[in-house]
Design a protein that fits this description.
Blueprint (H helix, E strand, L loop, with lengths): L7 H20 L5 H45 L1
Helix pairs in contact: 1-2
Length: 78
């Protein structure tokens, strides 16, 4: 069977898992509360930026796949 979403589901799962693992690790780390919260904010921002980049890439890849499929269909219809 083929992967219908082009691996985007895996990428999203990987990002979510990494963020959750990082958050849990930081919450149990021996640091003062304010320092931990600041670190969590910074890491969350970094994760959000990475997720945005991955989502943009997935959209671009999906758009390219749609264009190729449309061209193939148009070619076969002609």
């Amino acid at each position: 069977m083929t992967d219908k979403n082009g691996g985007s589901g895996f990428a999203v799962g990987l990002i979510v898992g990494a963020v959750l693992g990082l958050a849990i690790g930081l919450l149990f780390a021996p640091r003062p509360g304010e320092e931990t919260r600041q670190l969590l904010r910074e890491k969350a921002e970094t994760a959000r930026e990475r997720a945005t980049k991955v989502a943009r890439k997935v959209r671009e890849t999906a758009g390219e796949a749609v264009k190729k499929a449309q061209a193939r269909v148009e070619k076969e219809m002609a």
